[in-house]
Design a protein that fits this description.
The protein has about 625 residues and is an all-alpha fold. About 75% of the residues lie in helices and about 0% in strands. It has 4 domains: about 120 residues, no CATH class; about 170 residues, no CATH class; about 140 residues, no CATH class; about 150 residues, no CATH class.
Amino acid sequence: MGKLRFTLTYLLFWFIIVFSCLLAENFALFSSDHMGGMSIDSLIMLSMFVIFLLIVYYIRERNRNKITIDKVLLPIIVIFGLVSIATVWWQGDHSFLTQSNDVVTVSFSVQEKASYTLQIIAWCAVLYGILFVFNRYSISRKWLKWLTFAYVIGVFVCTLVDIVMEFKDITAIFTNTYTGSGLSFIIYNSNVWANIILVAVFSCIILSIKKFNPFYYALMVHFFVMIVFASCTTAVYISAIAIIAYTLYEIFSKFADRKRYAARLLFVYFSVLLFLFGFITMMINLNVPIFVNLWSFMNTHIFKKDYSTLTSRTGIWASVFHLLCERPIDLIFGLGYKTGNAIFTRYFALQSGGFEARSAHNGIVEITLRHGLFGLLLYVSLLSTFIVGIVKLLKNKRYRVAYIYGICFLGILAHSVTESTMFFVPNIEATYLTMIFFLPVVNASKEKYFIELNKDLQKQNTPLVKPHRGDVLYFVGTFLLSIIVAFATSFSVHPIYSHPRLLTIYIVVASVAAIALIGVFITLILMSKKRGNNRLLFLGKEFIIPFVSSIIVGVITSLLLQLKFSFDTFSILLFTIFVIFFYMIVFSILYKRENNHLYAFFDVGFTKVLQTISREGTNE
């Protein structure tokens, strides 16, 4: 990559990341059945949409920012993607014997394998973008700081809502009438909710990386209490150790040159903890109901769990390796992306008498299940780059950054022993973990390189660009036209008529867009008349031909898709967004006037914002 130039494609990449995560998270967001999720048709459509946006992104970045390929990372990801796709397609039918010697077969249709193939292609491209483009060329670390802050505040608000929603359950805990397994908010599983809060604890630690912040420390304590109520044993232990480890470092680092004072403060800290422990123990011995009932809840749901088998997890892991070892090729290359989990879920249900394991409940085992020893080797090699980054930070005497990120990294790996918590996986959690807890360490180890990029950004000449009124109107007209075309094509998809509310919203928005487009249309006619242009030629070139051809192509395309796919409500909404993006991008490429003037106006404003943030980040 040559001189760094920011464009609106930087924001487009964030949008791509969000949509790519939906490929894996659809079970929780778009279906009451978390094991089912969206239809295969919707997944194919979403995958095609993400791949289309990726193509546009890389082409525009190539033309505008002159990015170059990574000669090491790109071949590795391409090989990994090709092997993963091959693994999906060479999977035959898997047959298992039930306890009554009946044969149960797990098979995948061509449409399902096509869906998995598209998803692998999409995620490999996104992963390459995160590890290469985002990692090496994203200057502004404050973007990640704000993302972390938004996550912490979001989880904090959700915990408050959780207290209100499940207040009866919390009361029942203190009255010893609670019969559940822990608070779960609106999540289908309390362990998942505890995991979300645990990541918020680590995020608070990251937000305190510059100096100790009492506000974030108070949030850590609040999150720890909520994890206790969620009764996830692993998350309770890890969060407690992480908070104590962070506290000890703050004490020693703040008073490194005053060892006696640090020792006294340390004595006070542990004295307070011992006092609280002794006070609670005394209240329990005195049979104070609140403390006795709380202890009963914690003792039952946290301390008395089956540690010998890690609540039956060792049995799940043994079943995974037993399944993989049935065929050597499966152990080497795994059972395939998503097919592995589907096969194992059915296999384990037969072995356990009906219980279906949602995942392998171990990040390393999960990678091995999906991609075998081959994928595990690649995964470990990527993780090793974090260790290299920590070593470089220590050599540069950036002890605070290395220690704090080390706490988070080790905590996440410890949690992955009992849950499928992983970096570099196409879901929302893994993407957040990768960007917030992994990439900054690699970036920090390249401090000199980023200083040069900061200087390059500050040297950029960003003259004020004033777009012509005609350019603004043309941009607005294009957007309105794309909305009308999108809705017109959506009407041709039959299932929309079975959703009266959705149909009503479409008609209202399309009507408003049509009225606004008429206003823009008349204004442009008047402008063309003042400029002495031929009105018929102007209308034919700028509106009539694109408008009519767009509707014809859109309707024909949607009808052809309908013959092959069965769309649901989400597919219709997604198709609408796809058409809007398609026409906005195509029009911006075809009509250079709008592309060079109005987009330049946004680019200049966006670059100035990045310059300000970059300057502030450099001064920290």
